[in-house]
Amino acid sequence: MISNIVKTITLAFLAMVILFGCDSNSKSSGEDTYFRLTPDTVNLPKTDTSVTLTIEGGTPPFNVAVYDDTLGSIATPFIDTYDRTVVYSSKAKEGVNTIEVEDKLHWTASAKIYQYQYTISINPSSLTMAATQTNQTFTVSGTSHNVSWRMTDSTLGSIKVLDDYGYIIEYTRTTKTGINILYAKDENDTEKSVTITQQ
After folding, report:
1. What is the Cα gyration radius of the chain?
2. How far is 145 from 187, CA to CA, in rounded Å?
3. Closest alpha carbon to 189 in 51, 46, 92, 53
4. What is the pLDDT of residue 75?
5. Residues 130, 135, 139: CA angle, nearest 5 degrees
6. 79 & 133 share domain
7. Which structural domain range is residue 84 located in?
8. 8-state DSSP, 128
9. Structure pTM?
């Protein structure tokens, strides 16, 4: 009988440990009701070198760690462990990094940093349009993200997107002569341009 009671208590304790164990980005404790690092997901394109994250909730002091220091580091030494601002500085390398913060009660919160160091290209890379040529197809490569287009002078021509992702467009010129520049930019703010000279 006693052994059954002990066994029941033990199982109940284990269940509580599993139920209330540490969650990577939230918690419930007597001192704070939550603990997280925001934003918890960051897309860091080649044009950006740093990002600022904020520690929300938790119980200071805090310890901050970066999983892969070949991808980046905390921009300034985390000397004031009561500070709630974390500045991450990336290196010229593509990959996925993780920033982890631990508070006084040993709860943890983390954020994923997705670093993109690629470049996109447009084919053809430049174009001279004779007066007899009315349209031209352009194709983007080097990215797996949706692409948006813009141009410097809408009086010289128009753009028609031919697919669901913005990888292929058709440019149709007007009768005006001049120079028009088309810009293709993906969702990570990686941008490429192509110059069109209209004769």
Report:
1. 27
2. 6
3. 46
4. 73
5. 115
6. no
7. 22-115
8. E
9. 0.49
pLDDT band with cut points at 50, 70 and 90 for residue 152: very high
Same domain? For 86 and 105 the reply is: yes
Q: What CATH number is given to the structural domain containing 64?
A: 2.60.40.1080
Q: Render the burial of 151-189: b for 16+ CB within 10 Å, e for the rest.
A: beeeebbebeeeeeebbebebebeeeeeebebebbbebe
Whether 71 contacts 95, CB under 8 Å: yes
- Per-residue tokens: 24: 């990577």
pLDDT (average), residues 148-161? 97
Strands 157-161, 41-44: parallel, antiparallel or unpaired by DSSP? unpaired
Tell me whether residue 12 is in a domain. Answer: no
| Domain co-membership, 64 together with 39 | yes
* Whole-number Å distance between alpha carbons of 123 and 183: 12
Same domain, 92 and 147: no
